[in-house]
Amino acid sequence: YLLILHDLDLNKSLEVGSYPILRARRTTSSSDTTSTSSSGPRAVGSPCHQNDSGLLSEKHMSRSSQREGGSPRNSLEVLTPEVPGERDRGNCITSLQLHPKGWATLLRCSSNTDDQEWTCVYEFQEGAPVRPVSLRCSLRLTHCIEEANVGRGYIKELCFSPDGRMISSPHGYGIRLLGFDTQCSELVDCLPREAGPLQEIRSLYSHNDVVLTTKFSPTHCQIASGCLSGRVSLYQPKF
Predict the structure, then answer these.
(1) Which of 49, 97, 122, 179 is the most buried if burial means most Cβ atoms within 10 Å?
(2) Residues 85, 116: contact at Cβ < 8 Å?
(3) Running along the chain, 239 residues long, what does each successive block of 10 average in pLDDT?
C-alpha cells in the first residue's frame, strides 16, 4: 500500500493508534475514491477491499479540525495504486520517490509472483470533499512502462531528475532514461486523459550484474548506478 501522512506535525505523537486512518481503494479518478475510518493500527495492514466506503467518522475528529474543514494533523491515508494488468493478481510496491515539485509519485511495482515489473507515475489529485470533515485524496495513473524483470526478488531503486523531467530506472544490466514525452517536457504539460507509456530517451549499459539502484546528482549533470555485485558507475553527457 501507499501510506500518506496528512499535515505532518512533529510536535505530536506519530503512533498510528492515536489518530484516525483514512482508507481508500485503488482508483484512477477522484470520483472513484472512497474512504472509511478506523482507529486501530490493524487497519493499516488490512486489505483495502472494494466495498470499503463511507466518510471519516466525526467521532474521531477533533472540534478544531471540523471547524477547519480538513483532516486532523498526522492522519494516515492508505491507498492501493492501480498497476497495469494486475487488477486481479495483486501487486507490491518495491520503490518510491516523490516528484521534486510534489505533483506526483514514482513507483516501481512488481506482481505478487515476481514475474512482471512496472515503472509507474501517479498524479496526486485532491477530491472535492463531500462533507467539510472528509478530505479525500486519490492517485491517477498517468504514465507507465513494463520493466525487464531481471533479478527477480530484488528491490530496484529508481528516481526523478532534479527538475522532474526525466526518470532513471534500473533495467537489467543497465539503466533507462525515461521521459513523459520524447522532448523531456514537464509532467503538467503532457498529462494524458488516460494512462500512456513513458518514453525511452536513452539506455546505458555498463554493468556485468543486475542494476539495483540509480540516482541523479542534485547539482551536476551526472547519474550513478549500482549493481548487485557492488560496482558503481557514473555517467555524464557529452556536449
Answers:
(1) 122
(2) yes
(3) 81 61 47 35 32 32 40 77 66 92 92 88 71 59 93 93 96 96 94 93 95 95 96 91
